[in-house]
């Protein structure tokens, strides 16, 4: 029996987000993630430049909502594109654990995860097989 996983099925993680209900200050999350990512922090939609001194290859967007304009109170942690794939790899290899994102007294939930199918065409693949794939996918 073959073990199925994202790699075996040519799936790549393209977006991961987490929500932390009620977290009033993103500083703890920034400190936890800055080992692996350059944090970009927005508070109520406005950039907060105090955390931009880190320079890592991968980025994380941290959106803090403090309840103004009727918004939810809490923090979103967002990884997209290659940053999401890197985050997934760190979680999978246990270099980042749930304890990194969990804050005492606050609820952590997975907000969203997006995958995409990635198949590199072989040199000998005819155009017809690609067209058939598109038709089959639509169907």
List the helices and strands and how they pair.
Elements: E1 11-21, H1 27-33, E2 38-43, E3 46-48, E4 59-66, E5 73-80, H2 82-92, H3 98-101, E6 107-117, H4 127-138
Parallel strand pairs: 2-4
Antiparallel strand pairs: 1-5, 1-6, 2-3, 4-5
What does this 3D model show about the protein?
This protein is of the alpha+beta class and 139 residues long. The protein is built from 4 helices and 6 strands, in the order E-H-E-E-E-E-H-H-E-H. It has helices spanning 27-33, 82-92, 98-101, 127-138, and strands spanning 11-21, 38-43, 46-48, 59-66, 73-80, 107-117. The protein has a 6-stranded mixed beta sheet with strand order 3-2-4-5-1-6. The protein has one domain. The chain is elongated.
What can be said about the biggest beta sheet? Answer: 6 strands, mixed
Helix/strand structural class: alpha+beta
Q: Mean pLDDT score, rounded? A: 83
Succession of helices and strands: EHEEEEHHEH
Task: Output the strand order for the largest sheet.
Answer: 3-2-4-5-1-6
Count of separate structural domains = 1
Beta fraction: 25-35%
Low-confidence stretches: none
Termini Cα gap: 28 Å
Give the helix level as a range of percent: 10-25%
In short:
The protein is an alpha+beta fold and 139 residues long. Helices cover 24% and strands 34% of the residues.
What labels describe this entry?
139 residues, alpha+beta, 6-stranded mixed sheet, elongated
